[in-house]
Amino acid sequence: MRIKTGRIFLHLFFIIVSVIWLIPTIGLAVASIRPMAEIVAGWWNFSPLTLTLKNYGTVLAKKGMARYFLNSIIITVPSSIIPIFFASLAAYGFAWSKFRWKNLIFLGCIAMMIVPLQMVLVPLLKLLKFLGFLNTYIGIILVHSSFGLPFAIFLLRNFFVSIPPELIDAAKIDGCSEFRIYWKMILPLSGAALASLAIFQFVWVWNSLLFELVFLKTQEIQPLTVGLINLKSRYLPEWNLLSAGSLISLIMPLIIFLLLQKYFVKGILAGIGK
Amino acid sequence: MFVLPALALFAIFVFYPTISTFYISLHKWNGFSPMRFLGLSNYLKLLRDPLFLNALKNTVIWMVLYTCLTTGLGLTIAVLLEENLWYAGMVKSIVFFPMVISYVAGGIIWAFIYDPDFGVLNAFLRFIKLSSLAQPWLGNPKTALYSIIIAGTWMWSGFSMIIISAGLKSIPPQITEAAKIDGANNWQLFWHVTLPLLIPPLMVVVITTGINSLKVFDIVFTMTRGGPFYSSEVIAHFMYMETFYHSKMGYGSAIAVMLFLIVITASIPYLKRMAKGMSE
């Protein structure tokens, strides 16, 4: 009997947890397909109930969400591939090559992972202006690519080290060049780790706000996060539009989450050194 | 050399700016006219600036509350999910989901909940006859900070849950079986067997969320911009406002350096762990 009441409390606890974790997003989704006139009475109030896609049409066409979405893709895709390419090269070097101060340089890179972004904003602004990259896709892509490096190098190096050294030695004896070993052997072996990283970096850049706020000044090239900030006027929030806009912004991470949750979790666990 | 391309990018876009910020922080600069050397006086001013001290206080509140709440919730959920529940995977996904959305979207979701007129929270309080508690959560200086921390907790509890869950999986079942045979009840089992074995993953969770909480910016910027009356201001956001809204690049850089020093201090155990992981 005692065990049974325990079980009931357990179920109750998880029902409450699930409700608290689901209601916020459900509320947003419901509000996004109803007119403002009805949201005023509460999105949970279902009489009268008018379902409409008009909010989505408005934010996409009139509030620039379509453009922001495109910009997010233009920025995020290269920012997820470039750092992983360079990081895999560097990780190969850190794992298998011998050079002076190798471990020290590696640790230095890794330590930079904790630097707050605030620490680089002003000089980067100056630098991008100097290079003519301020307010350009290439500028923000370069910045994201550089900041994605430490985590990617850390993760891949730890993965590469776990590859048996005999494999590499054998390839060297067969006369393979270092680059061939990296390209033909190491990369194909690390497919899962690379995928994990790419997903991680994609979500990170997609959701990023601070760099975009400082380095992208015109609506033509701003991504969804800044677009949502532009949409959110401080005093009179139009919840019908805001909710539609937010949902558009989280469709991409949601799809990735539903399809590739395993890789994402793997990335997190690898990141903490498990 | 394989490491050179990465190192070059890194040196130009990460390392150089970090050093440069130290230099700028010793100057008075509005971003346009020439810099004027001030020595350490930005820092002296900072230590007496009530707005900075207020932001510092709020950042510490963030660190303590946010770390305790996400770790506590993640631990509770992860441990209870071990009880052979058919829906365990579903609950994990539900709690984990907010981790993949942006703080901007999360901030808007919660601003909607806290909305004084159309928000579900006040409606719920009125429904359970607690109308006196209903209020503009983000507009009230007494509640704004805590309301944002709750939103942050909703977003990041999944992190500690995942890591603690992985930690639980690595506990050999023989140990818990043995304790059960020795007559330990569930509570004793948790307190004397499971929890001590969970200390390494718990350390990871506490350090990581602790460091993240010091850097919190996006969600504050989205929900309140530090207001009302600086009641939800934090250091990372204060730096942004001083630097880019009030064009005090030198002063802002000094704030960034202070934040950097605080984060470095908090990260010492983390860095040690990294260095140890290397040598193994």
TrEMBL record, chain A:
It is a multi-pass membrane protein. It is found in: Cell membrane. Residues 69-260 form the ABC transmembrane type-1 domain. Keywords: Cell membrane, Membrane, Transmembrane, Transmembrane helix, Transport. One of its GO terms (biological process) is transmembrane transport. Its main location: membrane. InterPro entries: MetI-like, MetI-like_sf. Pfam families: BPD_transp_1. The keyword Transport applies. The chain crosses the membrane at residues 12-33, 68-92, 104-125, 137-160, 181-206, 241-260. GO terms for cellular component: plasma membrane. It comes from the Bacteria. PANTHER family: ABC TRANSPORTER PERMEASE PROTEIN MG189-RELATED-RELATED, OSMOPROTECTIVE COMPOUNDS UPTAKE PERMEASE PROTEIN GGTD. Belongs to the binding-protein-dependent transport system permease family. This is Carbohydrate ABC transporter permease.
